[in-house]
Amino acid sequence: MNGLAMIAAGIAVMAGIGGGIGTGIATSAAIKATVKQPKAAGKIQGIFIMATGLCGATAIYGFIISIIIMFVK
Description:
Layout: H1 3-13, H2 15-36, H3 41-71
Helix pairs in contact: 1-3, 2-3
């Protein structure tokens, strides 16, 4: 395995950092919105779950791509 493939795999894994940051921002926004509008908590929770799922999917895609880059020749 050459060094460039390892660097590319490392960059692909960094998608997990973006997923973590996105989840934190979504959580913060959901908490603030629920505090301001308690009656809308159900709608806010649904949007929060969808946003968190998308952030998590991005992190998983980056991990899978890094595995593919490292082990497929």
